[in-house]
Amino acid sequence: MSQQVVLRPAEQADAVEMAAVQVAARAAGPMPANIHPEAEIADFLRARLAMDETWVAERAGEVAAYTRFTGTWLDDLYVHPAHQGRGLGGALLDLVMSQRPGGLGLYVFETNIPAQRFYAARGFVVTERSDGSANEERTPDLRMEWLGA
């Protein structure tokens, strides 16, 4: 990581940048586009800040990546395409895993092979495959789990 990266808890004011990171990452990656507009995603994230643990990776004063998780579930981990491949996703996942040493699960789209490899390299295993009928995108996905330290 060439520039200084700061990992910190997300704040309400970060929601707009977090939504932009999510939209850009999904548009650039092998996964379906968001079905909600960016402003609606920002509102959703703002509301979830009160319930979920949410962290951002900030580089040069901008939110470059973020993660959102609950007691046993990793809901979001997105890195802006301009910042991918520089260790931000790994740093955020390490933080999540340190906060949840008992393990956690996540869903990843079946088409998102890079994400599957990323999680598998860190000890996550596929525990279930679905046809996508339970997600908003109606796109096949995989449940992956890390059983803990």
What features would you describe in this structure?
The protein has 149 residues and is an alpha+beta fold. The chain has a single domain (5-146), classed as Gcn5-related N-acetyltransferase (GNAT) (Aminopeptidase), CATH 3.40.630.30. Helices cover 30% and strands 30% of the residues. The protein is built from 4 helices and 7 strands; from the N terminus they run E-H-H-E-E-E-H-E-H-E-E. The protein has a 4-stranded antiparallel β-sheet, with helices on both faces. The chain has a 3-stranded antiparallel β-sheet with strand order 5-7-6, covered by helices on one side. A hairpin with a 4-residue loop joins strand 3 and strand 4 (74-79). Helix 1 (15-28) crosses helix 2. The two termini are 26 Å apart.
Architecture blueprint of SSEs:
Blueprint: E1 5-9, H1 15-28, H2 38-48, E2 53-59, E3 62-69, E4 74-79, H3 88-99, E5 104-109, H4 113-120, E6 125-130, E7 141-146
Antiparallel strand pairs: 1-2, 2-3, 3-4, 5-7, 6-7
Helix pairs in contact: 1-2
CATH class: Alpha Beta
Total domain units: 1
Q: Which strand-content bin applies to the residues?
A: 25-35%
**Rg for CA atoms:** 14 Å
| SSE class | alpha+beta
State the fourth-level CATH superfamily: Gcn5-related N-acetyltransferase (GNAT)
Architecture (CATH level 2) name: 3-Layer(aba) Sandwich
Q: What is the helix fraction of residues, given as a range?
A: 25-40%
The total of helices stands at: 4
Q: Which of globular, elongated, flat, extended, rod-shaped describes the shape?
A: globular
Average pLDDT confidence is: 95
Main sheet?
4 strands, antiparallel
Strand tally is 7
Q: Roughly how many Å apart are the termini?
A: 26 Å
Strand order of the largest sheet: 1-2-3-4
CATH topology tier name: Aminopeptidase
Helices and strands, in order, run as EHHEEEHEHEE
Low-confidence stretches at least 5 residues in length (pLDDT < 50)?
A: none
